[in-house]
Amino acid sequence: MPTAEQHGLVAHSDGAFVPVQTRSERFRSVNVEDFEPVNGREHEWKLSPVAAFADLTSGALDGSRPDVEADEVDGVAVSWIARDDARIGTAGTPEERASANAWSSFDEALLISVTGEDDKVATVTRSGLGATPRAAHTIIEIAPNSRGLVVLRGTSDARLSENLEILVGEGAQLTVVSLQEWSDDSVHLASQFAKVGRDAFLKHIVVSLGGKVVRVNPSTHLAEQGADVEALGLYFADAGQHLEQQVYVHHDAPHTKSRVTYKGALQGEGARTVWIGDVLIGQKATGTDSYEQNRNLVLTEGTRADSVPNLEIETGDIEGAGHASATGRFDDEQLFYLMARGIREEEARRLVVRGFLTEVVQKIGSPELESRLTAAIEAELQGN
Q: What pTM value is reported for the model?
């Protein structure tokens, strides 16, 4: 039976238990039975609608191969590997029950291998997963000094709990776009672990537009000197939709850098977003340069946006570290400026929202995908 200490709790002087405050000390395991059942009071679940996905945290999951479509691109290979492959588990380990349930349940892992110094873009799409609770495990591995952009896309119906591992070799430059375009009733829980090597760069982008409940938690381990991550997020929550991101960056080596920027918009009764940003600068991470920010734009009444930035610093020898968070309505001055030039208020509001979110879209690096996401944002604004 797991103990309280395993779950991030330590004894207080009065006999009660209090949560472990340092992110690096959280309990981890690949075995779902090592975690207590989820009740919604845990620090990692307290802002999530746990009743909506109890089958994914505690129930049996179908771990068979999902339907996958992948572009044929030179330098990108897609294959299936066994559970005992040495690469599995090298980027991270589950910190909560849904991730552990998926880890305990998958049969084979999907491997996406990227090689070659030329620029390349590949899209891997999962669709038609249906209403059965499922588990999945994916590894994206880029060879040293290689370059590439991988889009991992989810569409149609799904009840999915999954783990994604991203392995960035020395000197490599990789962009990963996690694109959630699920159907309106879908539920998707994802833990995404990245390990970035020496002088390597990872651009990690989470785009959540579809789904009833979508919870994508990216963790990046800057494991070697000169590792660099740019973590970006874009989300648009409509009525009754819950979109959540818990972002973690661990600076664990000298002269590492991170930039975290997540932006979201909310409209409609019951639209809910959650963003939690944890940055840990470890004792070995001298010369760290880190900054994280979250911005939310509230478009209607009846919405709620939770935004919680956290920063832990264990060494005084850093270049800089900071965080910021803001949630608000339209900038009246921007609206006035546009309307004074003959633009109707409704169109002016769309222009403001589009400009607010486009900052993230334009950093993807794929004109085709950027154009498609711009159209999707416009459709959200139109209520389609």
A: 0.92
